Amino acid sequence: MPTIRKHPKKGHWEGALQVNGVRRWVTGQSRQEVLAKLAALQREAALGHLQAPTKLTLREWTQEWLAGKDLRPATLRTYRQVLDAVSALIGETPLPKLTPALIAGALQRLKRQGMGTRRLQMAHTYLKAALRTAVDLGLLLQNPCDRVPKPKHESAPKRYWSLDEARAFLTTAQESRLHYAPLLITLLGTGLRLGEALALEWQDIDWENRRLRVDKALVQAGTAWHLVRPKTRAGERWVPLPAFVLATLQRLPRPLDPTRRVFLSAIGTTPTPSNIRRDLQTLCRRAGVPYLSPHALRHAAAALMVAGGADPKVIQRVLGHASVWVSLQVYAYAARSEHQAAAALEKALGG
User: What per-residue confidence (pLDDT) applies to 326?
Assistant: First the structure.
């Protein structure tokens, strides 16, 4: 039964009703107003429109949500980085007090702080998924992210090497004594992901058929390295070796143990990305070419394949993409100018 009374000091009327194990209070200027509010509260409770009370904050909930997800180490690290950035702004807000305006404001602040548009999209997507689970579990009545527009991704112009620049880099790397020069030559000549190259073992190289096998990758999560299988079947593949990559690998000292990894640090450990980037920066500076990240060498390799006239399906298999459209959309535009496209049409149509 509801409780109704007039406050002895303040003079207003108030009433209480037990809903979902919690005593909920309403106030009004008259007994009739309080009765009407209690009746409305009872109707909402009967329809299941009253969310269960929770003291969980957004930060606590996203941490709990992530703990229940089965993600690859590198993917989990990305989720945490993105959601931690949101939590730094609104993480102490209790779940029931989250509003679309609060979330939209946090995304705007992250943008002003320099977060890229792709990461902003990820923040919206991850947050929306976490809060959707909170709705499913009855912790929220509705998902405030549903009314927050997803940020638009604004692609920055991508800069890859011209053929002359790629040749200048290759010549510089071949003449260099830098420890990671062979690794960087291999990345440019095969289009491997850095983690795939770091996981290569000597037994993965098929010298007779001039190719190497890709069936695993090393990924870093925090300070730990994890050996993982490819995400898709297309990721397991044989990659042909250009002559300059084959020659580079043949010059490396070959151990007796075929399961030893090809690319290690000077002390025999897994190379740190910062040391690889340092050698890459040095080589780019010596070659007089713009700096590209280790992953961008994969992009450059693909762009050069396209520029050289390689078939898109072949490029897809070499890169390990699940769909040919990924290869074309990500890389093809980087390799051909508008003038090249026009020249191709003229050649095809005989103009």
Answer: 54
Q: Give the pLDDT confidence score for residue 173 in this predicted structure.
A: 96
- 31-35, 123-127, 189-193: which is most confident: 123-127
> Taking Cα atoms as reference points, which of 180, 216, 211 lies closest to residue 200?
216
For the domain made up of 163-348, the CATH class stated in words is: mainly alpha
Q: Which residue has the tokens 């509003």?
A: 99
Q: What residues contact residue 232 under an 8 Å CB cut-off, 6+ apart?
A: 320, 322
Packing angle of the helix pair 294-307, 181-190 (nearest 10 deg)? 40
Contact 51, 138 (CB under 8 A): yes
pLDDT, one tens digit per residue, over 250-291 is 999 999 999 999 999 999 999 999 999 999 999 999 999 999
Best CA proximity match to 51, nearest among 171, 144, 186: 144
Cα angle 174, 334, 319 (rounded to 5 degrees) comes to 65
The residue assigned the tokens 């990345």 is: 187
Nearest to 134 by CA among 222, 202, 63: 63
Burial class, 94, CB count within 10 angstroms (exposed 0-12 / middle 13-18 / buried 19+): middle
Q: Give me the pLDDT at residue 349, please.
A: 47
**CATH placement of domain 58-147:** 1.10.150.130
- What one-character DSSP code corresponds to residue 28? E
Q: Where are the alpha helices (DSSP H) in 95-220?
A: 100-112, 117-136, 163-175, 181-190, 194-199
- Containing 279, the helix (H) or strand (E) segment is helix 273-287
Residue-wise pLDDT for 163-185, tens only, equals 899 999 999 999 999 999 999 99
